[in-house]
Structure formats: C-alpha cells, structure tokens
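Hi there,

I know you've been waiting on this one. I reran it after we fixed the sequence typo, so this is the corrected version. Both the input and the resulting structure follow.
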Amino acid sequence: MIEPDGNFTVNSPYLRANFDISHFEILGLPMSETIPLMVPQTAHTHVKDQRGVHPNFEFLIPGEGEFDYVTYLQTMSKYGYQGFVTVEVSMMVQRRANYDPLLAATQSYYTLSQAFVAANIQRWEKKSENRKHYQKEWIDEVFNIGNKKGINAMTISDLTGIPRPTVIRKL
C-alpha cells in the first residue's frame, strides 16, 4: 500500500517488488534514499542506464549513460539484497533503427562485470557440469551470431572477457 505521505507497506510475505532503480532515478529520487526502502520488499532487480528526468528522459543500454553501477551494487549489498541483478533493455532502445541485441548484451555484460570488480563484489557461480555445457553452447551461439553480423570472436572476447547470459550475478 502506498500511503499519502509517500511511504508504503507490504503486509504479505508473498508480495514482493521487481525493483527497477531507473524508474526512481528519472524521477530525481537518489539511490541513497530508494535502496534502503526497497531492498526489504525486493524479490528481483534489473538495471539499465538512463538520461534526463521525467518527462524529458530516455532509457539507455548499460554503459551509455552515467548511472553509478558500482555504488548501486555496493548499496544493494549493504542493505542485504542477495538476489539476481539482470539487465533490462528498454523498448526505447529496441526501437532504435540501429539496435543490435548482441552488441547490447555484450556492452551490458562488460559494463556490469567491470562494476562488480570495482565494487569488490564476487559474482555468484554455480558449479556444475550442466552449467559448463550450457556455457559452452551459449558462447558458441554468441560467436555464431556475431560472425553472421560481421563481428569477429576476438571483438566479442575483447569486450566481454568470457561472454555469458545477461544474468550477471546473484548477490
């Protein structure tokens, strides 16, 4: 329930939020205020860059804007978030004439992986043979798509290190 003073309460353990920080950012609400309020109610979070303030704003691919992913990750961790951090590519981006999903995924992975390193937060790794098999298939598919688009494997590896799906890390 959202109260008239802006506070909200959730009186059920079965109702949780998908916390999209960018929607708070375009309203001019700083993460230092929104994260402590939202983390206790958050089941999932996703990120994207943004520029401007409502009504004059646009959503961007991670790395295109000035969103501080390092502070975001550190603050989410500080307030106890332990779920997945995923990337959302907005329809604003997908409608671009030159939109390339492979490049968007590659740039997103690179941006967030660098932020995890700078934030000194270890990314979650599930150890299993199935994951190794899945990862190899995914890497092969990324390279195949890249080759079809004229992007060579060296470029993909240079940008990402080891390409992976857009689920970046479980805190």
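Quick highlight: The radius of gyration is 17 Å.

Best,
R. S.
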